[in-house]
Amino acid sequence: MYIITLDMEQYDCPFINTSDDLEVSYYMTYWDFKESKLINRGYIFASSDDELQNSLEALSRQPKFLELELLERNKNTALVRTTIDFTDAMSIVRKNHGYIVGPFFVRKGKEVWHIGFDRREDLENALSELSNKNNFVILKENNLTIADFSKVIEILPNLVKFVSSLEKFTFEERLIIEAALKYGFLDDPRNINLEGLAKNLYISKGTLSKKFRKVAKRIFQETYELLKNL
Question: Which domains does the chain have, with CATH numbers?
Answer without folding.
Answer: 2-153 (no CATH), 161-227 (1.10.10)
